[in-house]
From TrEMBL:
It comes from Paenibacillus oenotherae. The keyword Cell wall biogenesis/degradation does not apply. Pfam families: adh_short. Keywords: Oxidoreductase. This is SDR family NAD(P)-dependent oxidoreductase. Signal peptide: none annotated.
Amino acid sequence: MVSVIDKAERKIAVVTASYSGLGTELCKLLAADGFNLVLINRDAAKTLIQIQELSALAPLITISSITADLSNQAAIRDAARKVSDQYSRIDLLVNNAGVVLDRLQISSQGNDVHYEVNTVAPYLLTMLLRPQLAAAKRAIVIVVGSSAMKMVRKLELDRLRNPGKFKKFAPYAQSKLATATAFFAMAASFAKEGILLRIVDPGPNQTAMSTNQGVPGWFRMFRRFFALPEIGARRIYDAAMDRKFGEQSGIYIERGKVTRPPAPVLKKEMQEGILELLHETTTS
């Protein structure tokens, strides 16, 4: 049961894709921990159902819903404005949203949707909410990564916005690698403002994504051996809340331990390149 805490004293968590398999279980953990929640999703009706379930679990917390298509940068900016209008500080931002498609789809900005949702959205939302994160004095930003990026030998910056010839799963893996590279590059600057950036690989889980036609057939065949969503959600939660990670920022967490990320993530030229590309993407 959540203890009685003044609303102003409660920690505030912003979560994208909150009603997904991992998001659902993560929000239960945060609600039970007494966080006020801001849920950013594409489907308002599904979010309402989730809010009702979370309110029954933790009736004393405040839960807000913001509807946004994270492939649309204008929608992301509007969502960030609504968050900042409501809260002057944010203690935790979880960039959980992700997409894997079985064909090339182009966003309203003219970019591959994998890149928009998996890379641009977490970058842009984090940048836009930076003042509110800094106001918390010690805020944590979690990016949900993927083991898929280990399948990529190098980060192809020139193919992120439009991969050209579509090869199933490749744009997803590239976009996840790009996100990890960007957040590693941003970590030192954000840490100066008391904002810790962490990437966590929740491992393969039995979620809707693991049955998606955008993932390889061999991957779907092993789904029954994947962890339940509760396990992946706990790994995300622990990446933010476990005291053993202390004040570490710019870290990659896998199976509850800080591990070395794929080699391209640590290359300075890749870090500089992805930040330049993201700046160009979000300001053009």
